[in-house]
Write a structure and sequence with these properties.
single chain, 177 residues, six-stranded antiparallel sheet, 1 helix, globular
């Protein structure tokens, strides 16, 4: 955690059917301009260049994901107010498949979009940033994360529940979620 900590997982060749899952414990409060668009993850080749990201939506308490470089352009999924709150462990997953995209929080779908053109194009992305944005004006993530997983398939609801249930123990302070 910390305001200047991030991980750069480097180059990746990724796209198509995907699932991302991770646990996060945010420390920054909604309404704080210093926390605007803080990133959990941002894969891409620059600001607005083939990005797949999960972040706080502006300075709100809403979780968001934006995917650039799809056959249909770009799109954003927004979770409800209270989906990005400090002081609690939360599990987020983003699944992108042939029939649409779904953002889940603690094993419950909070935003989805139907369509067969939502998968990001399979291509080279120069950096996979965890806790940092490609946009220099955006905040670095302030908090803790654990158990980041990337699957090159759109996992089913049952598979996501198994991951959520199986990864709930062992976090700081005991059981998560």
């Amino acid at each position: 955690g910390g305001s200047s900590s991030h991980i750069d997982l480097g180059y990746t060749h990724i796209g198509g059917r995907l699932t991302f899952t991770l646990w996060f414990y945010a420390l920054g409060n909604a309404g704080d301009n210093a926390r605007s668009w803080e990133r959990l993850m941002d894969i891409g080749s620059g600001a607005g260049a083939n990005n797949i990201l999960i972040a706080r939506f502006s300075t709100t308490s809403r979780l968001a994901t934006t995917v650039f470089s799809t056959a249909g352009g770009s799109y954003t999924l927004l979770g409800p107010s209270g989906s990005f709150v400090p002081g609690v462990w939360a599990h987020v997953s983003l699944t992108i498949g042939r029939s649409g995209a779904t953002l889940r929080l603690n094993d419950v779908a909070i935003a989805s979009k139907l369509g067969n053109n939502l998968m990001p194009r399979v291509l080279d992305r120069s950096r996979f940033l965890v806790g940092k944005s490609w946009w220099t004006v955006d905040a670095m993530y302030l908090g803790y994360m654990r158990d980041l997983r990337v699957y090159v398939v759109d996992l089913s609801d049952a598979q996501l529940t198994t991951i959520y249930d199986g990864s709930r123990s062992g976090g700081p302070g005991g059981e998560l979620g």
